[in-house]
Write a structure and sequence with these properties.
Layout: E1 3-5, H1 11-16, H2 20-25, E2 44-46, E3 55-59, E4 64-72, E5 81-85, H3 87-93, E6 95-99, E7 109-117, E8 120-121, E9 142-148, E10 153-158, E11 163-168, E12 173-177, H4 185-188, E13 193-195, H5 205-208, H6 212-215, E14 228-232, E15 241-248, E16 267-274, E17 279-286, E18 301-305, E19 310-315, E20 321-323, E21 328-330, E22 336-341, E23 349-352, H7 366-370
Parallel strand pairs: 13-17
Antiparallel strand pairs: 1-7, 2-3, 3-6, 4-5, 4-7, 7-8, 9-10, 10-11, 11-12, 14-15, 15-16, 16-17, 18-19, 19-22, 20-21, 22-23
Amino acid sequence: MKRTLSSFALAAALLGGLSTAALAIGGPSGAHIDYGIPGKIGEVVVNPYDIAPLTAVIKNGGYTLSNAKVTIVPKPDGQTISYKVADKHLRTHGGIPVFGLYPDYQNTVEVEYDKIYKGQMDLSEKWGDIVGSGPGRNWAHVNSVDYDPSDDSIIISSRHQDAVIKIGRDKKVKWIMGAHKGWKDQFKGYLLQPVDKDGKKIVCEDEYSKCPGYESEKGGFDWQWTQHTAFRIDSKSKKGVVYLTVFDNGDTRGMEQPAMAGMKYSRAVVYKIDEKAKTVEQVWEYGKQRGSEWYSSVTSLAQYQDDLDSVMVYSAVAGMQFDIAKGRPVGVPSPHINEFEWGAKEPSIEIKMTNAMGYQAFPFSVEKAFEK
């Protein structure tokens, strides 16, 4: 089946010189959590390789595309540009390449294509990596899954829910670690109660979305926000008690955006969960004192290392700045790698990279990597 997309409003993007892909990763206030979708299959990325401003790619939105044809509708008395796109080029570009746009003009692009999802021809237009709760939306964005052998369950990190969730083999939720605000009644019984080291209940404001660590400059208990890598510390955990390392990216902290982007911060955190009591204690944190220069809006990692009884942390896009006018990153971030002795307030090691970028970083054993 073929469909036609028309009247793409690319003029503003061309005039501003921006890429919608850059907007997807962030804006002047940090990473977006609600992406605009201008097309039927995926976002439109103008000048995707930063070398040809009058080109674009219409991303495939998670579909397998084939038999594509592109037509640039001409200006009055202009020349029609129309061409077919081989399937191999659809795979290379992750979508449909568009060539021959007019500058400073509201371009109209007509696109025909066949669209397949999971081997089935899809006619619903419901699917794609889109934030939200509708059919096919990326409402969870799970970025880590760890196994708990003590009860044959998994622990997932759901970035778009600001939640770490334990799910049993029976596919039922065991507990939810995250702000209490917004959850339906059927899940409220699984929400963990924050406590201090003595087991005393910690009270948080605004339906448990604004906790003492959020309110105080000195830190204290806070939830994880748009987090990554909720990893169980196997050597310190046992049946009913779970220690977790989490990289708390910190966007939408307290379910709001700060007055200035420079007020954002990320944290590496260790939590202790008492599954029977349904409580969570914050055992250790680092990062709030580093402020925006250590803040990573996306990716990153925190992981316990058994051999040294330490916590290794990777802040992947630390210090990345944004051009507010263009809504895109400026320069390249400076990733930080830190390692902390268990419970230490300052790192034993800090490695700062410049002009670099990477999704994750973690140590590995050379002996184990090459001996088998």
